[in-house]
Design a protein that fits this description.
The chain is mainly alpha-helical and about 90 residues long. Helix content is about 65%, strand content about 0%. The protein is built from 4 helices and no strands.
């Protein structure tokens, strides 16, 4: 579902985001309503601002992608290396 540019502009204003943060949210597959819903209120001191939240999500995804690449490289390396153990 495509969201209108007006919805993105409203989310940008309400969440106090810049253009880079909006582009990051779009890249992450978030929608403007989810950004607005995650604005911390005064009764939710544990919530971080939306821009920090977006960057934390991106960091987690990058970490997972790096781990996945390392695992793939390790399995390819194990498959490429011949077994040196011989049975008598």
């Amino acid at each position: 579902m495509a969201y209108s540019e007006q919805m993105w502009q409203d989310a940008k204003k309400k969440c106090r985001l810049n253009n880079e943060d909006i582009a990051l949210a779009k890249r992450l597959g978030l929608n403007p309503r989810s950004l607005v819903k995650n604005i911390p209120s005064k009764s939710e001191p544990w919530k971080v601002p939306v821009s920090v939240w977006l960057h934390e999500i991106e960091a987690k995804r990058q970490k997972k992608a790096a781990q996945k690449q390392r695992r793939r490289a390790k399995t390819k390396q194990a498959e490429a290396a011949p077994d040196t153990k011989e049975t008598p």
